[in-house]
Amino acid sequence: MEVSLITKKFMTDELVNENIRFKEVLVIGPNGEQLGVMSRREAIEKAYDDDLDLMCVAPNGNPPVCKILDFGKYRFESQKKAKEAKKNQQVTEVKPLRLSPVIDKHDFDTKLRQARNWAEEGMKIKVDMRFRGRMITRIEVGKQVMNDFVEQMSDLAGVDKAPALEGNTMSVVLSPKKGK
Description:
This protein has 180 residues and is α/β, with parallel strands linked by helices. Helix content is 36%, strand content 29%.
């Protein structure tokens, strides 16, 4: 009844072997066959007889379900799957851009050019427009500038979050269109 070193290392965070505290468990064999309901001690001995481990796969079941398996191999496979999934995920970066309701034409074009480059690279763009002082009384001017910006970007990016005023800042989120 020797517990492998790999199993000892990970026993603290998993319900494996001696960490299983249920009186009776439904046991599934190493090949997937049901061995029936038995006491925890019997199930652990059965697993040790095959030089394998007993792992609780459904602790909320009635009775809890445990499977006889090689825990070291199971742990390795699950870590490998997690690593593969992490490698395949894509992180989308959100680039911030700030406009002003009284922005000049040249500044507008510069910011538009930068946003178009980001959209071509596949990045999301969050465009903020801050209303400072008395500008808050002229929201329609800022909304017009924001709509012009969104319209100029419409061939490369679509609107994720429509222009909305939150406090004294109007924001819109643009995401690149697929296939661009």
